[in-house]
Amino acid sequence: MDSEGSRGIDGGKKVNGRKRFIMVDILGLVFGAMVCAANIGERARAMRLLESLKYPLSRLQKILVDKGFSGEDITEWVKDNFDCIWEVSTRAEEQKGFVVESKRWVVERTFAWIGKYRRLSKDYEFYENTSESFIYIALIR
Fold this sequence. Notes:
5 helices; alpha+beta; three-stranded antiparallel beta sheet; globular; two-stranded parallel sheet
C-alpha cells in the first residue's frame, strides 16, 4: 500500500489525494504518524498505525477517536491486542450546532502545528514515507 505516488479519493470527506493519521498523547506529542491514499478506510489505517508503533504501549489505558473510527471489529481488536479501551468521542444528542468534542482539540491542534510548515501545508511529496518523515521532523522542531 505504501507505494510511490499512491493517491485516492475519499468521497465521504471530499479528500482527493492522501490523508494523514496521527496518534498523540494528551499533550499533543506524537506516538505515530501515517500518510496513505485517501480511499483507504479509517479503521484499517488505525489498525496498521497501532501495529507499526516501535514500542509497546503498556501504560495506555484508553484510545479516544472520532466517529470515523467506530465499529465493533476494531474495538475488540484493540482490546485483545493492546488491553485498552477504544472509545468513540460523540456529542450529547440534545446539543445542536457546533460542539467541541472532548479532547478532540488536541489532535486538531497538532494538525495545525503541522500545517504551519510550508512543505506540509499541502501534499507536495511523491513518496508517502517522505511525507511521514517531514511530519516527524516538523514536530521535533
